[in-house]
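During the reporting period the student researcher (J.K.) took over the structure-prediction task from the postdoctoral fellow and processed the backlog of single-chain submissions. One of the processed entries is reproduced below for the supervisory committee.
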Amino acid sequence: MFPKMKSAIFLFAGIITIAASIYWSFRIPTYYSLWPRLGLENIATAINPNDPALQFTIGNYYFGQGAYDVTRAKRYFQATITLDERYPLAHYQLSRIYFIQGNLNRALKEIDRELELYPDFKRSYYIRGLTYGYRKELAKAASDFEEFLKWKPESWAGHNDLAWIYFQMGEYEKVLQTVEEGLQYSPANVWLLNSQGVALLNLGRKDEARLAFEQALPIAMGMTATDWGRAYPGNNPGIYPKGLTSMQESIKKNLELLEP
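J.K. obtained the following structure tokens:
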């Protein structure tokens, strides 16, 4: 056999081997981690067109677990549900995205479906509480946050958001009680301390309010944008610096209200 023909055969065999390797790699779930590094998500989904787990994995990747692109994440979560309407957490993740995008009606529809399918997944109550809160359905929001806190009483965010609902209701004593319950678990939490100060201020207890704000301010000033962002998973990291600055300025303004 001629040398050139031998080389061509070996090259062709090598190409076939590499192609087969890629094919079988993307057929095996353990190798799902390859696609983000290689940038081959289209190949992975083409080889596994009927695999909801792969679609869900890619959706999570684009929803802050590697990159942040909610348009892509939403597309993959929707594809997951198309393949398996009962896939665990798919409706939950899709609800979070719709909430972030301001589509509260669709967010509520998705989280209701998640709760219908998986009533024991109590985090759904937190997302639904937020959704009801922004829809100004305050009694429903309070009920969902209370349900969430029965399951996770140590959640500072659950206490803070329930306090936010009570504040909108004008129930300042309930705001204070809820925040102080949260502070038992997280005594140096800046969000809870600020909420405590706001509740005390509205109750006319100005000296105590000042102490709460004075405790909160140095904690807030020592935070990084990343620290702030950890409290808001699923949001665009690009807003973290602005969010942190806004919180710091809010505490400063609250203190200014108490100046003699």
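The committee noted the following: The CA atoms of residues 102 and 112 lie 17 Å apart.
J.K. will present the remaining backlog at the next meeting.
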